[in-house]
Design goal:
This protein has seven helices and no strands. By secondary structure, the chain is mainly alpha-helical.
């Protein structure tokens, strides 16, 4: 018998699929990150080029980021529960969770604020862009710490 097939995991083992080396959280988390960054890029382009259609694209990317955050949080909590067996939240794990929740709150706030601006047919001002910059910094820090936790980056 071929050893390659003998060592293969059961494809129907749900726990193994969810907790594989590249579990669901590292896959899912890229959606809100990419959508938020795209939103920032389109928002800056909309302000720079004075193109309302780019502001609309920015809004829908931001809305997509906000809608995918609950899945990222759920898979992150699942990874903590199953992979780390509910270990005490301390050190880098605590810092990652704090930064992730802060990032999520900033994205939710920006989505709420942008929807209000759209309803008034108004453009964002400097404060909105400052919160966006803060959101980018928080997402970068969160991802960096997450990379350390997953072993992708060296501490």
């Amino acid at each position: 018998m071929n050893l390659l097939f003998a060592a293969a995991p059961n494809p129907f083992d749900v726990k193994a699929a969810l907790l594989a080396g590249h579990a669901q959280h590292p896959v899912i988390i890229h959606f809100p990150i990419a959508l938020f960054i795209a939103s920032v890029v389109f928002e800056v382009l909309a302000a720079w080029r004075k193109q309302p259609v780019l502001a609309t694209v920015a809004y829908y990317n931001l809305l997509g980021a906000a809608l995918t955050i609950p899945f990222a949080i759920a898979t992150g909590l699942g990874a903590w529960h199953w992979q780390l067996e509910g270990a005490t939240i301390k050190g880098n794990l605590r810092l990652h969770m704090i930064c992730a929740l802060t990032s999520a709150l900033l994205i939710f706030f920006l989505t709420w604020r942008r929807s209000r601006l759209r309803a008034k047919d108004d453009s964002p001002r400097a404060g909105y862009f400052a919160v966006m910059a803060l959101g980018l910094m928080m997402i970068t820090l969160t991802g960096h710490i997450g990379g350390i936790l997953s072993g992708v980056e060296t501490p």
